[in-house]
């Protein structure tokens, strides 16, 4: 069985099956094999650059086909094009195969451009190792050469494109790729090009998290924001409380499009409190707050906008949009001081850990919470509180409030109007009053503390962890990791409008608000209330914007 006797390659298809069955190493088998390989990896059957450049040497003693044996000429075989000239009438196979392979190769190039790390340069280099055995290859001369000679020319160029594209993409690290693509996309739709500018103030906390907020902002965020038309005045905080001072005194006409915070939840909380403490509250409350996460937790932006990396945050800001969010207030009743928050306020063990963790901030950064938590767990005190809460009535009207007076005055009037208060008194390991479901950005399992809470549902979610002791606390934290903590018999979960927490005796009397500790003095009572949809965040949740 030789190839010459088969005539035109177009007729092979009918014979292939039979031949493949009876002669496993014959042409039928060979073509079937090639098709299989081509299906898996279209480029596998084509030669490398190296193979193309260097003519193949004959090995001594290697078996040759009859055609080759008869050929008289130079030692090195002529290039495939010469063979084509000798036997031209095979366009029927070459032409369709060529167009088919063009399509395949184009799709491969597209795949490369879409950046799949598996399809990087190494992938294509590896693909050349899929070769047929020499003994099999020797049996077919003409069809293989024809296919090769015609396809090599077209695919060599396409392979080059694919290799270059993939090498361009594969050399950049994975983390930087999104910003590379983002910048390209934004270049096309640039607001700056269209003359749309947004004037904002950027407040950057250089002490946040791993103290990398400067690098994060100037390298990853600023270019994207500038491209999308943000005119930014950047201010770095010099001391704790600086962001609060800036937000409470800034001329609002210099930043009509918002204040962008680069840091953690603490810096956002300072800005919020600065704005809500202003005399021109009506205007200030309208000012949206943007967040570039660079802190230890950044639970707010992760939970509400679904973002936990600075590049995505910059893209979200660039896209625009506003997300309304409820604000809650925590009032220290005796002193008459009110603090505002967006995430949660907590009392008991977690507030105690927060206070201790500040000692480790300098040396351990975001890991300070773990160290303080373990230490406090080992020397666990008792926490006794009296908790009064006003449950959310099902007929509650969620209409937005008009800000015509100071938030504090409104809260006092609203809470005293109803008298269905529920009282709980005793030992509590923890008390959490959550404004949203509080998903920590760090952590393996990403648990949530209040699964039913929404950032704009007009209610607060109260979680009471009754009792005391390390075993209970340990079980609670394990269950919390899997989001089973609400199933525990000593955990109470209720949606509320107002909560009053009063520490009893020598219990730790501090209160944590959005990761910031507010210390009480003597017999303190904390009163927690809601201001529905009073806050505005720059950007929208990914799913909402899509
Ligand atoms: N220049 C500064 N020097 C010292 N402390 C600062 C400075 N600027 C801000 N702070 C304080 O740092 C505290 C923490 O800031 P931030 O919340 O941004 O980071 P974080 O605590 O690491 O993150 P998270 O709150 O998400 O855990 C804030 O209470 C703020 O008052």
From TrEMBL:
Residues 54-97 are annotated as: Disordered. One of its GO terms (biological process) is ceramide metabolic process. InterPro entries: ATP-NAD_kinase_N, Diacylglycerol_kinase_cat_dom, Lipid_Phosphate_FormReg, NAD/diacylglycerol_kinase_sf, YegS/DAGK_C. Residues 195-334 form the DAGKc domain. One of its GO terms (molecular function) is ceramide kinase activity. Pfam families: DAGK_cat (PF00781), YegS_C (PF19279). One of its GO terms (cellular component) is membrane. Residues 55-73 have a biased composition (Basic residues). Keywords: ATP-binding, Kinase, Nucleotide-binding, Transferase. PANTHER family: OS08G0152700 PROTEIN, SPHINGOSINE KINASE. This is DAGKc domain-containing protein. The lineage of its organism: Eukaryota, Viridiplantae, Streptophyta, Embryophyta, Tracheophyta.
């Amino acid at each position: 069985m030789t190839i010459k006797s088969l005539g035109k390659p177009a007729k092979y298809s009918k014979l292939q099956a039979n031949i493949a069955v009876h002669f496993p190493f014959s042409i039928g088998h060979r073509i079937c094999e090639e098709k299989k390989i081509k299906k898996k990896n279209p480029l596998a059957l084509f030669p490398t650059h190296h193979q193309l450049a260097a003519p193949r040497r004959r090995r001594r003693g290697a078996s040759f086909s009859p055609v080759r044996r008869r050929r008289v000429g130079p030692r090195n075989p002529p290039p495939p094009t010469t063979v084509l000239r000798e036997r031209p009438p095979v366009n029927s196979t070459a032409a369709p195969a060529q167009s088919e392979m063009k399509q395949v190769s184009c799709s491969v190039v597209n795949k490369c451009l879409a950046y799949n790390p598996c399809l990087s340069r190494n992938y294509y280099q590896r693909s050349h190792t899929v070769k047929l055995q020499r003994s099999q290859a020797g049996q077919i001369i003409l069809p293989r050469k024809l296919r090769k000679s015609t396809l090599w020319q077209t695919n060599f160029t396409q392979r080059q494109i694919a290799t270059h594209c993939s090498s361009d993409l594969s050399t950049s690290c994975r983390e930087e790729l999104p910003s590379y693509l983002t910048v390209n996309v934004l270049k096309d739709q640039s607001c700056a090009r269209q003359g749309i500018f947004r004037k904002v103030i950027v407040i950057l906390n250089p002490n946040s998290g791993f103290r990398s907020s400067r690098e994060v902002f100037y390298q990853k965020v600023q270019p994207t924001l500038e491209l999308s038309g943000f005119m930014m005045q950047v201010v770095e905080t010099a001391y704790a409380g600086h962001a609060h001072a800036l937000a409470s005194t800034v001329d609002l006409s210099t930043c009509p499009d918002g204040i962008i915070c680069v840091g953690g939840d603490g810096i956002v909380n300072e800005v919020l409190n600065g704005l809500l403490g202003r005399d021109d509250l009506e205007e200030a409350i309208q000012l949206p707050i943007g967040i570039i996460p660079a802190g230890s937790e950044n639970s707010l932006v992760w939970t509400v906008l679904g973002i936990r990396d600075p590049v995505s945050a910059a893209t979200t800001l660039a896209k625009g949009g506003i997300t309304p969010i409820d604000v809650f207030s925590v009032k220290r009743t005796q002193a008459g001081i009110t603090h505002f928050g967006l995430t949660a306020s907590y009392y008991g063990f977690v507030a105690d850990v927060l206070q201790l963790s500040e000692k480790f901030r300098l040396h351990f950064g975001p890991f300070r919470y773990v160290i303080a938590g373990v230490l406090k767990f080992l020397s666990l005190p008792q926490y006794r509180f009296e908790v009064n809460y006003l449950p959310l009535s099902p007929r509650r009207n969620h209409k937005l409030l008009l800000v015509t007076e100071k938030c504090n005055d409104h809260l006092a009037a609203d809470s005293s109007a109803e008298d269905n208060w529920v009282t709980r008194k005793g030992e509590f390991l923890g008390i959490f009053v959550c404004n949203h479901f509080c998903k920590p950005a760090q952590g393996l399992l990403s648990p949530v503390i209040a699964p039913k809470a929404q950032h704009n549902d007009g209610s607060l979610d109260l979680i009471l962890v009754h009792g005391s002791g390390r075993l209970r606390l340990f079980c609670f934290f394990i269950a919390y990791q899997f989001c089973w903590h609400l199933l525990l018999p000593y955990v109470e979960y209720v949606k509320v409008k107002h909560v009053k927490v009063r520490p009893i005796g020598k219990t730790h009397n501090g209160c944590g608000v959005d990761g910031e500790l507010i210390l009480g003095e003597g017999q303190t009572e904390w009163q927690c209330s809601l201001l529905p949809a009073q806050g505005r965040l720059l950007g929208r949740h990914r799913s909402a914007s899509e």
